[in-house]
Amino acid sequence: MRVVGTAGHVDHGKSSLVQALSGMNPDRLAEEQARQMTIDLGFAWLTLPNGEEIGIVDVPGHRDFIENMLAGVGGIDAVLLVIAADEGVMPQTKEHLAIIDLLQIEHGVVALNKVDLVDDEWVDLVESEVRDLLLKTRLAQAPLVRVSAKTKHGLDALLYSLQDQLAHLPLRLNRGRPRLPIDRVFTLSGFGTIVTGTLIDGDLEVGRECEILPKGIKTRIRSLQTHKKKEELALAGSRTAANLAGVSVDQIRRGDVLVQSGSLKPTQRVDVRFRLLADVSAPLKHNMEVKFFLYTSETLGRVRVLGAEALAAGQEGWLQIELQQPIVALRGDRFILRRPSPPETLGGGEILDAFPQRRYKRFGEEWRERLQALSKGEPKEVILRLLQRNQWMTAQQILQHTNFSTEVVQQALQQLLQENQVVDPQERFLSASKESWETPLVARSQWETWQHQALNLLSEYHRAYPLRRGMPREALKNRLKLTIPLFQVLVDELLRQQALRQAQNILARADFSIQLKAAQREQADALLRQMAESPYAPPSVKDCKQKLGEELYQAMLELGELIQVSDEVVFRRQDYLTAKEAVQRLINQHGQVSAAQVRDHLQTSRKYALALLEYLDQVGFTERRGDVRILKADVLNGKEK
């Protein structure tokens, strides 16, 4: 399904020509019909000689309604530029043509209308004038057809010319992300809310769960129509009317976009390549307020001119545009800028990045290489730049940020993975599973940066806490700001490289070990000598911490010089091991052992004996049976770890 949009000066007969071709009056408003002047967008359809049905978007030609015109031409495939033979090229002819050229609409037909009002010699002069006007535009080779909407002269030739132009167009690219910029909202009794627009991407089907962006309103498609024919499936490129469930007309406005739920998201900042028209009245200055037009949406914004103070007439440059209201945009979308007051079309261009994360330093260099690469449009390069800019992205998110098809994204990512420029930490993307499109992908440079950051953070931690065995896993994850799956894969990789050491939930650099200073060693040895004087009635945990301090006490636990068996009881390592062997001998002799037997054997108190036995239970050496202990099966079988 193709869509053709009209363009041209007011009163040059655009609507009359559409009616003559289609039999339908595109002026639907009573005011338009009374004034015989198009004010808002009109719609019609016709059948070409080869049987193909096409949609028509008729736009107003008066300068006061140029912004309504912009809402209609963003999604068209070709243009029907109408110029009255009795007046020739007029101001809105030039402005409409400039807009068509900025939107890079390359196919169209020029209709020299009202030829019945002038002689052939005059039409020849007008045609020469039009050719000169088209010479430096994308419509330079467009056919010119002499017609009269009033007498029907030349209408068949016009239809054949339109048919020929559309035959040269490739099929509308279907990237699988339905996007319907809404140009009309209304209600019908018995049906409810209906929206219309040109489906610029993807297909829509009855029953599909959708949302209306940028508001995020959830809805469902109850029914679909194309040219008043009921359809179960609306195809990319078609003029589409969608009957929506669960939403009222006052919740939607022109400029909103109907999309499949979760497929796209709005933005309020875009990086663009922009061309200022050669005949503008003044340069485009930094921080200038503009009106931003994209498909059917319109919002105010401010331009940040990158690398220059201003753009002169006819000049191209890089802009970052901050928008007052969110829009739905993708890389590759074409846009138009106008000055709000006095109103004037300034120029237009292409969105290079619909989701820049930050404001650039205007005269820095960080943006230049990236935007130049994005402007080239090579999928592999664009996707790599996106991944380099973000910590990580899924293939699904890459689809949301670019204007590439699923197949193009998949192929580019496969190449990047094979070239080792991108890392698939969970090794899932190359699988055929649906979940593979939700797995995080990371630029190789970012992956290596995380590894360096992790090791550097651990080094800093070891310097700050030299008596601790390492950093808690959760603390390192939070410092790196990684998701749990990504962090786990990163740690696994560093462990595989033997760059890290892990004990329970503690991480340390592999080359780190606790080293006591001379004064600390002296303190530790003094405590150990005191504990040796009464090995099974040693100072309490509290007393040890008071003598050593918390950090040094924890270090001795980490070094294995002390074994804490309860909240209150701690032994020297050699004393603990001796007591453990004694418990094993007693059980071997008697088949079991009681706390009293351990107390008497070690010549200590019940407090220390119980603390020791309960700890041996915890570590799986013994097992309690009533008031006695036996050895665990693994110990009996010689499999104790």
Write down the overall geometry.
elongated
Radius of gyration: 38 Å
Tell me the number of strands.
33
Largest beta-sheet details? 6 strands, mixed
Question: Short description, anyone?
Answer:
This protein has 20 helices and 33 strands. The protein has 641 residues and is α+β, with helices and mostly antiparallel strands.
What does this structure look like?
The protein is an alpha+beta fold. The strands form nine sheets. Strands 2-3-1-4-5-6 form a six-stranded mixed sheet, sandwiched between helices. Strands 7-8-14-11-10-15 form a six-stranded antiparallel barrel. Helix 8 crosses helix 10, helix 15 crosses helix 16 and helix 18 packs across helix 19. The chain is elongated and about 130 Å long.
Features:
alpha+beta, Elongation Factor Tu (Ef-tu), domain 3, 641 residues, six-stranded antiparallel β-barrel, 20 helices, 33 strands, 5 domains, Rossmann fold
